[in-house]
Amino acid sequence: MFAIIDACAFINLIGACDDDKYLDFLEYEFKKIFVAKDKVADEIQDNMFKNFLNLESSRREEIEEIIYQRVRAKYICWEDTKDCQDFLSQITQYPKRNGEFFSVALSLYLSRVGGEGKELCEKLFAVHLVTDDLGISNDFGEFFRINQIGNILDTIDIVTFLYLRERITKGDLENYCISLKSLYSRALAELEAQLEKIRQHEKDVKLISFFSEIMNILQYDNTEPLDQKWKDFTRENSSIHRRAKQKYSNFFNLVEDYITDGSLNQIARIEERRKQIVHIWKL
Amino acid sequence: MDYQDYKLSENPFRLTPPMNPNNIIWAGMHGVKAQLEKRIRIAMRTSASRIIINWGAYGSGKTHAATYFTRTDRLKKISQELNVAEAMSIKVSLPRTSKDVVQAFWRALLGQLSFKKLVEDIHQLSDRLQPLGYFETVVASLANDNAIEQLFVQLGKIEKDDTELLENYERYLYGDSTKATLNKLGLPLGIADDEQVVNLISTLLNCLTYEKQQYSTVLLWIDEFEDIDTLNKTSADRFTTFLRQLIDKTPNNLTLFLNFTPKRFLNIEDLSVYMGDALLSRAAVRVSFEEPTIEEAVNYVDELLNHHIYRIDDVKESNRFYPFSADAIEYVLRNIGRHSIRKINEAFSIILELALLAEKQPEIGIPFVDSISNEIIAWER
Q1: Nearest CA to CA, how far is A117 from chain B (Å)?
Q2: Distances from the Cα of B121 to the Cαs of B159, B197, B204, B247, in angstroms?
Q3: DSSP A72
Q4: In chain A, alpha helices (H)
Q5: Per the CB < 8 Å rule, is A210 touching B342?
Q6: What is the pLDDT of residues B38-88, one digit of tens each?
Q7: CB B199 within 8 A of CB B210
């Protein structure tokens, strides 16, 4: 079995437990681990520290060392996958050239010709793309299936696999889910902290009230989907929304990023998976 | 026009807590206040330590409750009614951004308590027990750790004007465990691990409430406890283990209030995931900060408008809500959706401000509210 890890999966496997032990286990369990040479390593470097608040400089150096030792020196696959990229692009019409795209192209390549195998196509069904990007199955799931590449897995699948292989306990699996959720909850808590600062310093009561309502919608009001609620709210308060956005553009960019990046969907998915742990049969 | 024209000293619907403790007031929400005060009275009169979860929606007044009982003289009045020693109240937010959550909590606690006050309180205990020859024996019986015992005995004996030595102790308590500091203080080790922090805080609380003489009880409010879901599991476990040990090692005279706002994907029943059964089973009492009914919200507005720190001139009983008409108050409350104290304050602040800007608005009635309702963010459209 081969594992291809994308940036968010790599970051989550380390960030959730502030340790690279799951990468150690993966190295034992999989014949080889790969990272696509285009984009993915840079995305890891760019996004790794967003999840670590107030990180001590010595710890930051340690994590940078992990990235170097694991990704740059070990996992990056340097083979030319251009033919696979062209084919993937032609079939899926996927418009972006991001880490997901290059990871899928690499998966296709490895399932046919790559790795250490001597025969062509000996790794069909044996290449597993590990990603916590929720959109990837929609964008590439069908392509993966009809090309008999293998599976698209998320990091909870990987940690469940490690539990079934008795590398870790059931408690560790549950703790992984809780810690993974905390990574996605932190972004919102950070927004909340910024919002509270704005509320403390702002003098305009309408803006203060507007910001309170934003906090309520983001964090507490779960009566309808967040993106819909946000659209309705900004439409109903369009003039004050414009004014607030002009004054606090950075904050609004973060809010809009948060709403579109699917963190809440991630939290919902993780919670559901955590509750499903009791459905796993282990010998 | 200004607030005086409305017979008000300033906007009573405050959006941020006042700096001056005299301006921190409690209006309405009598049920919640009664429940909290019942718990506080029990804590002052009885000895067992307890955990209480205060839970309620965003803006429902949990932080205000912690601020009110920590910064005003309300606890002093209750203790006088009961004829017991005062209670000490400390409010600390859950440390969310530190890698070392327990150390961060201790530093925040010490910051709220103040080093100077801590030394004064230990001196007071020492002054009471030293002449009887009991001080060291009592500290030894209350401490859970030899190094901490030594620290408290030394703090009890230190000269109040020895500023250099006091500074060294302060640095030590804030985590300085360099060899030079340890040598100067003659202490074997620094406040390095979670267990020592627990021993330090529990010894402090045990000393301060010894025989309920200096303080009848300590109320420790941990605000924003819902942010526990932003800590990774290891940190969350460290913090809840710390709380459990703190309650174990401070078996008497500590009441821990955990302020908890349920949020998306974290309801009160999910707390067991973070707190574990051992800690959660001790949090048997829960105080619910319910959404106020229309009547309760009207009562809240009434008490705020007529509180002596805001009302600067008498108003007729028939016109208690001045500058608002009574029907306008209810009209607003019926149109701003689900109530929270924060939302009520914000809605009425906007209305008052716009009325002042509009000039010539002797009374704020329904027609005026209708004319500006699109400016009220919470107004249901």
Answers
A1: 40
A2: 14, 19, 9, 21
A3: I
A4: 7-15, 21-29, 40-47, 57-66, 82-92, 99-112, 136-146, 155-164, 170-201, 205-215, 226-236, 238-247, 249-260, 263-275
A5: no
A6: 999 999 999 999 999 999 998 999 999 999 999 999 999 999 999 999 999
A7: no
Ranges of each domain in chain B:
3-14+292-375, 29-289
Q: Judge contact between A210 and A237, C-beta under 8 A.
A: yes
What pLDDT, on the 0 to 100 scale, is given for residue B263? 84
Q: Which of A58, A178, A184 to mutate to test the interface with B (most CBs of B within 10 A)?
A: A178
User: Please, are residues B88 and B219 in contact by the beta-carbon 8 Å criterion?
Assistant: yes
Q: What whole-number distance in Å separates Cα of residue A258 and Cα of residue A261?
A: 5
Tokens 């200004």 -> residue: B2
Kindly state the greatest CA–CA separation across chain A. 71
Element at B93 (helix H, strand E): strand B87-93
> Which residues on chain B are in Cβ contact (under 8 Å) with A178?
229, 233, 236, 273-274
Best B107, B230, B277 member to test A by mutation, with max A CBs in 10 Å, is B230
Nearest to A222 among B230, B233, B264 (CB): B264
Q: Using CB atoms, which residue from A18, A206, A237 is nearest to B232?
A: A18
Instruction: Please give the ipTM for the structure prediction.
Output: 0.83
CATH class of B29-289: alpha beta
Domains of chain A, each with CATH number or no CATH: 2-168 (3.40.50.1010), 172-271 (no CATH)
Between CA A197 and CA A140 the distance in angstroms is 42
Structure-token pair, residue B312: 């600067």
pLDDT (average), residues B327-351: 94
The CA-based angle A239-A245-A247, given to 5 degrees, is: 110
Task: Verify whether the Cβ–Cβ distance A264 to B376 is below 8 Å.
Answer: no
pTM of the model: 0.88
Q: Closest Cα partner for B160 from B97, B200, B115?
A: B115
Query: Chain B: nearest CA to A268, how far in angstroms?
Result: 7
Q: Which residue shows structure tokens 């004829």?
A: B83
pLDDT averaged over 10-residue windows placed end to end, chain A, 283 residues = 94 88 95 94 86 69 90 92 95 94 96 71 87 91 95 97 96 92 85 86 91 84 78 88 92 87 86 94 90
Buried-exposed string B358-368: b where 16+ CB fall within 10 A, e elsewhere? eeebeebbeeb
